[in-house]
Amino acid sequence: MKRIQVPAILMLLFLFSCKKYRVEYDQPSQVEFKPITATLAKGTVAAPGSVTILVQLVGPQRDADVNIEYVVDPASTAVSGTHYTASGAAGKITIPAHSSSAQIVLTAIPANLTTAKKLILTLKDGALPVSPNYKTSTITLQ
């Protein structure tokens, strides 16, 4: 009987002595791209390639929609409507209330991708600041 009591007591002591930690984000909220680099394979005319780029909220979720603007960098060689299409309104994305991210879905236009192209998207400061390290996403279309 003593053999069972000692391990049981030790197990109870271990369980009750473990501290529970709660990790909270204590910095100002911001938005960022994920991933910051991606590849969009052109696919075929019947089945064009696509890639999803997330715009994510770093910090607590909001009770209202968060509208974010992004621009295509002038150094981009890919042209919207010629080499790719993007979901939603051009240059705008909304992170819905009580959510942590929104998606930009890029779809290739295979017939017009004879050589590799670069698409560089940059988030603009607005309702929330942009993370300086993750404000740009570079997509290689090939």
Summarize the structure.
This protein is mainly β.
Q: Your description of this structure?
A:
It is a single chain. The chain has 142 residues and is mostly beta strands. 11% of the residues lie in helices and 37% in strands. It is built from 1 helix and 9 strands; from the N terminus they run αβββββββββ. The chain has one helix at residues 2-17, and strands spanning 30-34, 37-40, 50-58, 66-72, 84-86, 92-95, 101-108, 117-123, 136-141. The strands form 2 sheets. Strands 2-9-8-4-6 form a 5-stranded mixed β-sheet, with no helix packed on it. The longest helix is centred in the N-terminal third of the chain and has 16 residues, at 2-17.
Number of helices: 1
Strand content: 35-45%
Unreliable stretches = none
Order of helices and strands: HEEEEEEEEE
Helix content: 10-25%
In spatial order, strands of the major sheet run 2-9-8-4-6
Structural class: mainly beta
Q: Give the integer mean of the pLDDT values.
A: 90
Distance between the termini: 71 Å
Overall shape: it is: elongated
The total of beta strands comes to 9
Radius of gyration: 23 Å
Biggest β-sheet strands, sense, barrel: 5 strands, mixed
